[in-house]
From TrEMBL:
One of its GO terms (biological process) is cellulose catabolic process. It comes from Phytophthora sojae (strain P6497). This is Cellulase-6, endo-1,4-beta-glucanase. Residues 121-383 form the Glycoside hydrolase family domain. Residues 1-34 have a biased composition (Polar residues). The keyword Hydrolase applies. PANTHER family: ENDOGLUCANASE, MAJOR EXTRACELLULAR ENDOGLUCANASE. Residues 1-36 are annotated as: Disordered.
Length: 441
């Protein structure tokens, strides 16, 4: 999710996990089954290189083998329908306090008859059974440390007013690794270390996100060296020159700013575990000046008399700003890059030239052209809310990958996301085995 200064809420219900759907069977599972791979199976080390250098390793079998070597992109969505039975329960607040207190979800939020496989006796049991069900459908999960408590996101990984200390945050990480770093939950990619740390600096001023991401990532790796550390950006004011020669300041999308990350790279105790995961949104969140040819920006956030850009100019501006904010790291580091959140409004775009929709389309084209490992569209939830549609109209506009019944796919949105199928070396996750030598007793 991202926010602007006028942003109130993207969704009344935050997502518990974000998911990539792999090529999966079209049948639904009525119950969660134990891992379909026998405990006595031959021991493999599974290595997935997320387009560049980031590695995910497991010492237990996994569902698909695509040969001895491959590069795995992190997006693949071939069948949504097969996932709906389990994903539809995966919406809850992923807060540090809920992890620490092991708070069970409200029973009224989950249909116990149609989701009998989900164990909602505690927070951890809910998370475990959802992840296991997703794994049955060959869907990976990246767990987002999203909020500090259910009512406050928090702009850093600790906040005195929210009653969450740094030690509390690290304890929550320990709880997750202790309960989820297991062959049953082979499909967990890792942790998004903190959603939108917008109050942090990129380094040098407390709270320092470079230090925070290093601390949290190493704590995660201490408990689960298999997982990946997804690191978002911060935010700030920067300057950019776009395709028509205009130069102006811009305010980063929340968690979009990695402009300073290349100057002081994060280093983990386990190699190849960093994944850059910035956000990039569209005008439904904030009508940024570089996404329009002209207009009068008002204090309320709307743009009166806006003029839309042509396809070539808009794509160029999206490419330029993505590269300046974070894309340059693709050339400066060997780590994978995903869009941790993007999209928003799509099929309901009210611009005459569909500027909001086109921005998302060009995000995907940029991922494909520049070798990103993929992205997480926001969001599955149909009630995810955006504030501008079109740029001169403020309000509360909702759309998700599912329609309001939580069962019917949003066909146009889904077709738009299918453009990510062009990402290079797309494979089912994990992608290849390396047999390990058994140690002598």
């Amino acid at each position: 999710m991202i926010k602007s200064s006028s942003r109130t809420a993207k969704s009344a219900t935050q997502n518990l996990t974000r998911t990539w759907a792999a090529s999966s069977p079209t049948t639904r599972a009525r119950t969660v089954r134990s891992s379909p791979y026998p405990r006595t199976a031959r021991k493999f080390q599974w290595v997935s290189r997320a387009s560049t250098g980031s590695e995910w390793k497991q010492a237990w079998p996994s569902p698909s083998v695509y040969g001895k070597t491959c590069t795995t992109a992190l997006w693949c969505m071939k069948s949504l329908r097969s996932c709906l039975a389990t994903i539809s329960t995966a919406s809850a607040f992923q807060s540090i306090k809920n992890i620490l207190k092991n708070t069970a979800p409200q029973k009224t939020l989950i249909n116990a008859n149609t989701n009998r496989a989900i164990n909602i006796t505690s927070y951890i049991s809910t998370l475990q059974t959802i992840v296991e069900a997703l794994g049955y459908h060959h869907i990976t999960a990246m767990i987002s440390l999203h909020t500090l408590d259910p009512t406050k996101s928090g702009g850093a990984w600790y906040d005195e007013d929210s009653g969450v200390s740094e030690d509390d945050f690290l304890e929550a990480v320990d709880i997750l690794t202790k309960n989820l770093c297991d062959s049953k939950y082979w499909n967990i990619l890792g942790l998004d270390l903190k959603n939108e740390p917008h109050e942090c600096s990129g380094g040098g001023r407390a709270p320092d996100w470079q230090k925070g991401a290093t601390l949290i990532g190493n704590r995660m790796l201490d408990g689960c060296p298999n997982w990946l550390a997804f690191v978002e950006g911060v935010n700030g004011i920067h300057s950019v020159t776009v395709s028509d020669g205009r130069t102006n300041e811009y305010y980063d999308w929340w968690r979009g700013a990695l402009e300073e990350a290349g100057d002081d790279l994060i280093e983990y105790n386990v190699e190849n575990k960093l994944v850059w995961a910035p956000h990039y949104y569209s005008t439904g969140v904030s009508p940024q000046w570089y996404l329009y040819a002209a207009g009068e920006w008002q204090e309320s956030g709307i743009v009166q008399g806006y003029e839309e850009l042509g396809d070539e100019e808009l794509k160029a501006n999206v490419d330029i700003t993505m590269d300046v904010m974070f894309g340059y790291l693709m050339n400066k580091t060997l780590y994978a890059m995903v869009l941790g959140e993007f999209a928003g409004l799509y099929s309901k775009d009210a611009h005459p030239k569909l500027t909001t929709k086109r921005t998302t389309d060009y995000n995907i084209e940029g991922m494909v052209e520049r070798g990103y490992a993929g992205g997480y569209m926001w969001s599955l939830n149909p009630e995810s809310a955006y504030q501008y549609n079109p740029a001169d109209t403020a309000g509360d506009f909702t759309e998700g990958l599912l329609e309001d019944d939580w069962l019917t796919p949003n066909k146009r949105f889904l077709e738009g996301m299918a453009a990510m199928d062009k990402i290079k070396d797309l494979r089912r996750f994990p992608c290849f085995p390396v047999e390990l030598e058994e140690e002598d007793d």
